[in-house]
Amino acid sequence: MSEEVREVKEQTTEDINKLEKAKLDKFNEMLAEGKNPFLITKYDVTNHSMDIKDNFTEYEGKTVSLAGRLMLKRVMGKASFANIQDRDGNIQFYVARDEVGEDSYKDFKKFDIGDIVGVKGFVFKTQTGEISIHAKEIVLLSKSLGVLPEKFHGFQDRDLRYRQRYIDLIMNPEVKKTFIMRSKIIKEIRNFLDARDFIEVETPMLVENAGGANARPFETHFNALEEDRKLRISLELYLKRLIVGGLERVYEIGRVFRNEGTDTKHNPEFTLMELYQAYTDYEGMMELTESMFKHIAKNVVGTLKLPYGDNVIDFEKPFNKISMMDAVKKYSGVDFATIKDDDEAKSIAKEKGVEFMPYHTKGDILNLFFDEFVEKELIQPTFVIDHPIEVSPLTKKKPSDPTLTERFELYINGYEMANAYSELNDPIDQRERFVAQEKLRALGDEEANSIDEDFLNALKIGMPPTGGIGYGIDRLVMLMTNSQAIRDVLLFPTLKSLDQKDE
Description:
Layout: E1 3-4, H1 13-32, H2 49-54, H3 56-59, E2 63-76, E3 79-85, E4 90-96, H4 97-100, H5 102-109, E5 116-125, E6 131-142, H6 158-163, H7 165-171, H8 173-195, E7 199-200, E8 206-207, E9 219-222, E10 227-231, H9 236-244, E11 249-257, E12 269-278, H10 282-301, E13 305-308, E14 311-314, E15 320-323, H11 324-332, H12 342-352, H13 362-374, E16 382-385, E17 397-398, E18 401-405, E19 407-412, E20 415-422, H14 427-442, H15 453-461, E21 466-472, H16 473-481, H17 498-501
Parallel strand pairs: 4-6, 7-11, 15-16
Antiparallel strand pairs: 1-2, 2-3, 2-5, 3-4, 5-6, 8-10, 9-10, 11-12, 12-21, 13-14, 16-19, 17-18, 19-20, 20-21
Helix pairs in contact: 7-8, 8-10, 8-16, 9-15, 11-13, 12-13, 14-15
């Protein structure tokens, strides 16, 4: 009579406890027999599942050795079929008592779903046409003492998937694919920048002055020095120091930390890439950005037309370009070119229901109008240029209009993908803007920059004309993988602790 592993349609806590106890009992029996799988230190893996499946004619009849997680087992008297899941996918293997030996087959029958096993045998195709491994040897490499979700219901609870990503990767193959693509995207970024003579560098995460962006930092204390420190909110100010030092083309891909809330587009710990290139400006950064995005889409996704939700993002066409003022006029009907002063801007903001702070100026309110009326409309790749100076403290002024700056943000599918400047290299102007930011901090703006004296000293030494840009790597991965939430592209996103979850 055949023995089959049957799926349980619902796994209650009681069911799981019973299954875990049964697994532990088996493990204790193994220990009593002197068969402890946790003493095994290595296994010779020669091949992976998809390589064999994709190249069957090359491997047919040849001996291979694989290792992975046991995901299915059908025991049928003297012979059995099972399924092993490895790094690349899964493959069936056939185990016969007369081939592996009676003792080994007896042990195999006690293996549980979730166990890590090694299988050695020759490649063949079953009568039904399934590519399989005819086992000559099977070894238990690690005992699973926990219980995987049953396949009938799967592992779909999003919060639990984020908290137990290790199970999510086992049960949902598309999740593993997303993170493999993430790795390839970062690899292609490096390939693209290396080809343009950039060098990759690393700069401090623990800093005295967390500048370079409008964000509230996390704070900590350095016990050895008895000094407070902050976690960096950007990479900018140290990378610019390297431009001063003569490195000319630098970039960094690293974690930054912003003490803010979480939503589908924000996580307080995220991956940022910033790059700086001497002797160019924000126009040069536009060309680099458009070329790099197209390079990634072509080499990782395989197409310049990317499906994202209900839209198709078209990278074949040149990216759109519009000034912030023109975009606000187009989507809100308010022409800020005709607004005379701060009071008039505040009056119109009240009419339109745009919230602002007492210290906000006309430029700040223009930016608030953009956030309220424009962002969500920018689906296709669009460079938004000419930001007000109030929201661009590290950017060169436009020679034709000193109330605006040589800055752009790239928007795709309604959210910011990149932020670039013609970098401010005038130490006198930079000090004045830092002072203005300090005044905002005194008025209650916790995201305003503080004066960074060492950075100002670097500018006094002399920084060449420079173009710089920052990219949210997580949002880029979301776009390229058609993922709808930033948590879907972070292996371990920030979550409320379980102790606090129900409060």
